[in-house]
Design brief:
This protein is mostly beta strands. It is 4% helix and 45% strand. The strands form six sheets. It has a 22-stranded parallel beta sheet that branches. Strands 22-25-29-32-35-38-41-45-48 form a nine-stranded parallel beta sheet, with no helix packed on it. A five-stranded parallel beta sheet has the order 1-4-7-11-15, with no helix packed on it. It is elongated, with a radius of gyration of 28 Å.
Length: 430
């Protein structure tokens, strides 16, 4: 299809919504100039596939060869016989291909060798202008400054680009990721390391004024990854905030570590009307020196009338290493507010946490609950400056199934006064 080097107001070819076009073997589209509309050769609102054909010698304000409009989809599976070359964006971006916001591109990284030698007014967009969704895979490989589409180890994408993609929800880290601005997640995301034996970290590169990660109306699943720096960091916020009935899952090999919240509650995690699940993970060396809940703070969301919950299986709150303790004014490990609860589901360990005042391991406020359903749990080695080395429970807190059952697994803790192990007051379930 030859535009005969003639100027026209629009594209040579338009692929409308609900329509599709395939450029195959030996097909050539060439020599078309659009003076008014974007997409010198092709405007795409529907679906387009390019495998073996070529587009060259065309121009438009944006998208010299192809302009993919919002809602459009372009799939590139090009071989050695294909090329998009010698096209020009005369006044804007995307000499070769322009992907508008709301449009989708598949096959970006593999097509790079075949989309070359194009020109654009805006530097850096000579071949591609990517403003839409160009990560097509559900699982993407991620590096700090990756410029690919994340489809393979050879073409990783950046963490920021992965976050902006609505198609991708599994981020496989190839290296540590430093964050200079806190991120907010509002969909389901999985973060893991490419090599489980060489866990990667997501950490703040500087002191942040927001949490490192905020989960709001979404879910985050962590596996074989560190959240937090290798050395201690501090800020006015928690490392992770979970709000608006969201979920944080700390799975196998996931570690939350090394953060001090200088004012407020929840050094490591602050949950507000949300759910936290530890199953194979751990959290250590987090603190709230001016507040409560060194590792985890479970808050009641009065607006949503929803409490928070923490379920623990095969996981550690604290550490077997006393140097990695969590600490706070009250509830060195965990602080539980009214209408919030902890569930010990088996092989849960709360160890070597410290409270300046009460509840070295756990503090249960009035209306809070602690459920211990298995016999393989342990609350040990925790310390309180005043009362309840292992756990402290206010009046009207709930301890289920009973004080006697709980005391069997809350041992080896210390407190300066009143109780070596733990205190409960007026427990209605006792």
């Amino acid at each position: 299809i030859d535009g005969n080097n003639m100027s026209r107001l629009g594209s040579l070819i338009s692929v409308h919504a609900d329509s599709n076009m395939n450029i195959g073997e030996d097909a050539i589209i060439r020599n078309s100039t659009s003076t008014e509309s974007d997409g010198g050769a092709i405007w795409v609102e529907g679906t387009m596939y390019i495998g073996e054909g070529s587009i060259y010698g065309s121009s438009a304000p944006n998208g010299g060869a192809i302009y993919v409009a919002p809602g459009g989809y372009l799939s590139l599976y090009m071989d050695d016989t294909a090329k998009i070359q010698n096209n020009t964006a005369t006044s804007g971006a995307g000499g070769g291909i322009y992907i508008a916001e709301g449009a989708t591109l598949s096959g970006y990284s593999d097509s790079i060798p075949f989309v070359t030698g194009n020109f654009a007014e805006i530097p850096g967009t000579e071949n591609f202008a990517l403003y839409g969704n160009w990560l097509s895979a559900g699982m993407v490989y991620v590096s700090q400054n990756g410029t690919g589409d994340g489809s393979s180890l050879e073409f990783p994408t950046s963490f920021a680009t992965a976050l902006s993609s609505t198609n991708s929800n599994v981020f496989t880290l190839l290296e540590d990721i430093s964050i200079s601005v806190g991120i907010t997640l509002n969909r389901y995301i999985v973060i893991e390391s490419e090599n489980p034996t060489q866990k990667r970290a997501i950490y703040p590169s500087e002191t942040l004024s927001t949490p490192l990660i905020t989960i709001s109306e979404g879910s985050l699943y962590l596996e074989n990854v560190f959240i937090g720096a290798a050395t201690q960091t501090s800020s006015i916020e928690s490392l992770i905030k979970v709000e608006n009935e969201s979920t944080l899952f700390v799975g196998t090999g996931a570690v939350i570590r090394n953060h001090t919240r200088t004012s407020g509650n929840g050094g490591g995690i602050y949950a507000n009307g949300s759910q936290i699940i530890f199953d194979g993970g751990e959290i250590y060396d987090c603190s709230a020196p001016q507040g409560n809940g060194g590792a985890v703070y479970l808050a009641y969301d009065s607006a949503l009338q929803s409490g928070s919950s923490l379920s623990i299986t095969n996981s550690t709150i604290g550490s077997t290493d006393i140097a990695k303790k969590n600490s706070a004014q009250n509830g060195g490990g965990i602080f539980v507010e009214n209408l919030s609860q902890i569930n010990f589901l088996g092989s849960a360990l709360v160890q070597n946490n410290t409270a300046l005042n009460n509840g070295g391991g756990i503090y249960i406020a009035a209306g809070g609950s602690l459920y211990m359903q298995e016999t393989t749990n342990s609350i040990t080695g925790n310390t309180a400056g005043q009362i309840g080395g292992g756990a402290y429970m206010e009046a009207e807190g709930a301890l289920i199934p009973s004080e006697e059952f709980f005391s069997t697994y809350c041992t080896g803790n210390t407190a300066t006064t009143s109780s070596e192990f733990y205190v409960y007051v007026n427990n209605p379930y006792g």
